[in-house]
Design brief:
Number of strands: 25
CATH topology of the largest domain: Rossmann fold
CATH architecture of the largest domain: 3-Layer(aba) Sandwich
Bound molecules: ligand 26W
Largest sheet: 10 strands, mixed
Distance between the termini: 29 Å
CATH superfamily of the largest domain: Glycogen Phosphorylase B
Radius of gyration: 28 Å
Shape: globular
Length: about 850
């Protein structure tokens, strides 16, 4: 039957790659897909028809890629990530298929502008920040490199909240990204898998007389897969991203419906479907909420089930699993996959424990994305045991075996056992997910050189001593397709004119541009690109938010999640200090280059200090922008709802990239890479990937300031007293006093009092200690900016020397150091 079907399958062919072919297909989609005529079509009708037309061009490639991967049975990467911050799909698909011109022309012939339809797309914001965007860059690279990969995650019905400002304060709104239609997804309800929760475990003797355990769950949900295309860049490949959506199971409702409790049954349905309802907006402070653990187990259980039952051939011997798969754990969020695979092998497949553990240990690798101790996930044993009783038993057994091994290597070292135990006893008995991932993973990596070093030395020192070879570094990267080609077409054209198009898949080739930094004509063109991008940004902000940018100013940008360790407050103090020095007559505003300070940042809804900081930026902005004494010299803008789409217009326009986290706190950063690749200079601390950026672009093209990590450590150990900086530095004191005076809150001293008193009495992230160094570095920025030719030269060198930060390179590093998989042979 299957044989016959395979033989009789007609080849799937894409529509004709021409303007006429496109127009025909587009109108067909409009008529038969949307059910409207061109005269009556809304912008949304046209957008949906366009999206469906473009995906038809990808379809043949997708089916072919899946078939080839199946045939080859090559080792695949399963990227397990609770977040994918994809950004808009349309333009990326057009670039991947090289269709932009055809589509532009075809639509124009119908009187439609492509740019209007582009703006209709609501981006899928299924992630919080860097970690989610990294996952999206990685799957893009793997598709472009023809490496077999499935991305697994959650199809949240509501992604990261939409941010609005009311009187300068953040107000969150639900992100209803699905309401106008979701043309990029392919739901497969028929392929749903069942996931169990709760209940208890019981011992029994199997047919062979072996004592075994089984899980008797209490309730279950269905996971419905939604497939998304991940097109490689003009290489004919399309990989799959499979996101899971929760539905109530039939059995579940039947039981309750039959009991006559109709309303309860419907409520139970809602309960099940809650699991994939909303993305947790917390970035770096895990909340330990039951629903979050449900989400984690839900998507991981669906994914492993899917891989074992659907991706592998029916007769596959699971002893060979490590030859076919590596599950890459994107932070600790999917780590519950470890006991899940053990449960399948031991309880369902009836393997011996040791046999199962040997295989499991080869199937996982773990990436850590943080250094903040409070960001390391722990799950209370009480909660985990209630939701996943069998998994808890398995974790205990893994821990017992592991600690027995450690005890053998370090006899009598009780303290070490306590330190290394996967189970923490204080303040509450709980499972340390990072430890579980480290014990189970074949490899553990950090995301920048400095981070990987600190991970070994500070976060997991006992483990790196125990398994020195387990630890490795892979510095993050970003996809040049989205963050240069798509976001910055003008620069892309300039680069391609200069060195040819090869750089887009081999970013190291940007080096070939280096000599052009000394070519006056090229510098002129480079500046024209920047100016063009600033105009484009200016037009967008006017349209989007009614924000007017001044004509000719340095664009100084800080965009990232709002977090104390990232130190947006330090930037505010810089602005307030300049403002205060100008209005007090100390600083002549015409003596400094005019600057626009642009911010973009969402705060976790429950993070008070972060939300206050947002309000402070907005309030400072209002006062500064309205004061004629600084008009033209200082402008503060903070467009709400910073997301991937806004980043794509903001980053290419930037002159200065603010990367000012406290040294030793930012694991890597990836925004820093996007800015450098788009020709901004960085002002930054010696932190995360800033270290590597500076090494590559050169000291003279980077504004370094601030304490280095060992100095931070020493200062904190010695006892840090922020108020002494306040007392000893009049510039700092005047800036803080101005905030404290209520000058930015209509005279009300209470509004920003928490920020002021936090800075003076706690200042966990050493803002005051780095203040003067930051101001001095900003003076160097001003001086450098005045020499236009030298600045442009530095900007060009930033682009030319940042090719290392391609996510393609990062993927090769994962392949070499962690996965040991191979790209599919070229056709
Ligand atoms: C609620 C729990 C939680 C904890 C951590 C949610 C999300 C996180 C993420 C790890 C936060 C995050 O995005 N981390 C960032 O990951 C980037 C990609 O590696 C790095 O570049 C950033 O430095 C790191 O902060």
């Amino acid at each position: 039957m299957t044989e016959n079907r395979a033989n009789s399958t007609a080849p799937v062919t894409a529509p004709q790659h021409s303007v006429e072919g496109f127009v025909k297909e587009f109108l067909r989609e409009l008529h038969f897909g949307q059910g409207v005529t061109l005269e009556r079509a809304s912008v949304n009708d046209e957008y949906l028809a366009l999206a469906r037309t473009v995906r038809e061009y990808l379809m043949a490639r997708w089916l072919e890629t899946v078939r080839r991967q199946r045939d080859a049975q090559a080792k695949s990467v399963a990227y397990l990530s609770a977040e994918y911050l994809l950004g808009r799909q349309l333009d990326n698909a057009l670039i991947a298929t090289d269709m932009t011109e055809i589509v532009e022309e075809g639509l124009a012939s119908l009187g439609i502008e492509l740019s209007t339809l582009r703006e209709q797309e609501v981006e899928p914001g299924l992630g919080n920040g860097g970690l989610g965007r990294l996952a999206a860059c990685f799957v893009d690279s793997l598709a472009t490199m023809s490496v077999p990969c499935i991305g697994y995650g959650i199809r949240y019905e509501y992604g990261i909240f939409r941010q609005t400002f009311v009187d300068g304060f953040q107000v969150e709104q639900a992100d209803t990204w699905l309401t106008l239609g979701a043309p990029w997804e392919f739901p497969h309800p028929e392929a749903a898998v069942t996931v169990h929760f709760g209940g208890s475990t019981e011992r029994y003797t199997d047919d062979d007389g072996v004592e075994r355990t089984r899980w008797v769950p209490a309730w279950d949900v269905l996971g419905v897969p939604y497939n998304y295309m991940v097109p490689g860049y003009q290489n004919g490949r399309v990989n799959t991203l499979r996101l899971w959506s929760a539905r109530a199971t039939k059995a579940f409702d039947l039981a309750i419906f039959n009991s006559g409790e109709y309303v309860d049954a419907v409520r139970a349905q809602t309960f099940a479907e809650n699991i994939s309802k909303v993305l947790y907006p917390e970035d770096s402070t895990p909340q330990g909420k039951e629903l979050r653990l449900q989400q984690q187990y839900f998507f991981v259980a669906c994914s492993i089930r899917d891989f074992v039952d659907n991706v592998l051939p029916a007769d596959f011997d699971l002893h060979n699993l490590p030859d076919r798969i590596i599950f890459q754990l994107n932070d600790t969020h999917p780590v519950i996959a470890v006991p899940e695979l053990m449960r399948i092998l031991v309880d369902e497949k009836k393997w011996d424990w040791d046999e199962a553990w040997a295989v499991t240990q080869k199937c996982f690798a773990y990436t850590c994305h943080t250094l903040l101790p409070e960001a390391l996930e722990v799950w209370p044993v009480a909660l985990l045991g209630k939701l996943l009783p069998r998994h808890l038993e398995i974790i205990y057994r893994i821990n017992d075996d592991f600690l027995a091994e450690v005890a053998q290597r370090y006899p009598g070292d009780e303290l070490r056992l306590r330190r290394m135990s996967i189970i923490a006893e204080y303040p509450e008995r709980s499972v340390r997910m990072a430890f579980l991932a480290t014990v189970a993973g074949a490899k553990v990596n950090g995301v920048a050189a400095l981070h990987s070093q600190l991970l070994r030395d500070k976060v997991l020192p006992d483990f790196s001593e125990y398994w020195p070879d387990k630890f490795t570094n892979v510095t993050n990267g970003v996809t040049p397709r989205r963050f240069v080609r798509l976001a910055n077409p003008a620069l892309s054209e300039l680069i391609t004119d200069a060195i040819g198009p090869g750089w887009l898949t081999d970013l190291a080739r940007l080096r070939e541009m280096e000599p052009l930094a000394d070519d006056a004509e090229f510098r002129e063109k480079f500046r024209a690109v920047k100016a063009h991008n600033k105009q484009r940004l200016s037009a967008l902000l006017q349209r989007r938010d009614g924000i007017t940018l001044p004509g000719d100013a340095m664009l100084d940008v800080m965009v990232k999640r709002l977090h104390e360790y990232k130190r947006q407050t330090l930037k505010v103090l810089h602005i307030v200090s300049l403002y205060e020095r100008i209005i007090s007559g100390e600083l002549d505003p015409t003596s400094i280059p005019p600057r626009v300070f642009a911010f973009g940042a969402k705060a976790a809804p429950g993070y008070k200090m972060a939300k206050q900081t947002i309000a402070l930026i907005n309030h400072v902005g209002r006062v500064v922008n309205d004061d004629p004494r600084v008009k033209g010299a200082l402008t503060v803008v903070f467009p709400p709802n910073y997301n991937v789409t806004l980043a794509e217009t903001l980053i290419p326009a930037a002159d200065l990239s603010e990367q000012i986290s406290l040294a030793g706190k930012e694991a890597s950063g990836t925004g820093n890479m996007k800015f450098a690749l788009n020709g901004a200079l960085t002002i930054g601390t010696d932190d995360g990937a800033n270290v590597e950026i500076r090494e590559l672009v050169g000291d003279e093209n980077f504004f370094l300031f601030g304490l280095v990590e060992p100095e931070v450590d020493a200062l904190v150990t010695a006892g840090y007293h922020p108020s002494s900086y306040y007392e000893e530095n009049p510039t700092l004191r005047r800036a803080i006093d101005r905030i404290a005076s209520g000058a930015f809150a209509g005279g009300d001293r209470t509004v920003f009092e928490p920020i002021v008193s936090n800075l003076l009495h706690e200042d966990r992230f050493l803002v005051l200690a780095d203040f003067q160094a930051y101001l001095d570095a900003q003076d160097r920025v001003d001086a450098a900016y005045r020499d236009t030719e030298a600045w442009t030269r530095s900007a060009i060198l930033n682009v030319a020397r940042s090719g290392y930060f391609s996510s393609d390179r990062a993927m090769w590093d994962y392949i070499d150091r962690i996965w040991h998989s191979q790209p599919l042979a070229a056709r």
